[in-house]
Amino acid sequence: MAGRSSGLPVPVLVTIAVAMAASTGGFFFLQNRRSRPAKPPVLTSEAAAYLAHLQLTDVDMELAENYLKQTVTTITGKITNKGPRTLRLVEVNCVFRDLDGRIALRQPVAIVGRKTGPVATGQTRPFELAFDNIPAGWNQALPDLVISQILFQDSAPGS
């Protein structure tokens, strides 16, 4: 038995090597996908035409400290749908600026969506947005709220 190796059989070693290579490749692929900035939604011409029917009112901002001693910025307001269609999703870009007016953070958030339910013609719906990730150098002013996406109730998902 002097010529016999006590190691693992070659097929097992090959299988382990292939599995390790695949998992390493998968890890780097997922890391690369996460590090790429997400493409912002495109405001369709149909949605852009509907902007005149939407009204944001009573928009206010409050800063508070949470139990972890982090500053949480909360933006509240109301959205009114004065148009003829029911809204399934309305997303805004909250654009926070630094002291020089440059963009410090652009954060897309839904003010109408799954959590709030649809907003029918003539309805007003309150919204509340909380942020704990605003860079320290921001100007402490109310951010710009720019409607970046609208999906209608009668639209197919993903359209």
Biggest sheet layout: 3 strands, antiparallel
Q: What is the number of independent domains? A: 2
Figure out the total of helices. Answer: 2
CATH architecture of the largest domain: Sandwich
Which strands sit side by side, in order, in the main sheet? 1-2-5
Radius of gyration: 25 Å
CATH topology of the largest domain: Immunoglobulin-like
Categorize the overall geometry: extended
Indicate the percent of residues in helices: 10-25%
Distance between the first and last residues' Cα = 69 Å
| Approximate strand percentage | 35-45%
What CATH first level of the largest domain would be assigned? Mainly Beta
Low-confidence regions: none
Structural class: alpha+beta
Mean pLDDT figure: 84
Q: Encode the helix/strand succession as letters.
A: HHEEEEEE
Please, could you describe this protein's structure?
There is one protein chain. This protein is of the alpha+beta class and 159 residues long. The chain folds into 2 domains: 9-38; 45-152, Immunoglobulin-like (Sandwich), CATH 2.60.40. Helix content is 20%, strand content 38%. It contains 2 helices and 6 strands, in the order ααββββββ. The termini are far apart. The mean pLDDT is 84.
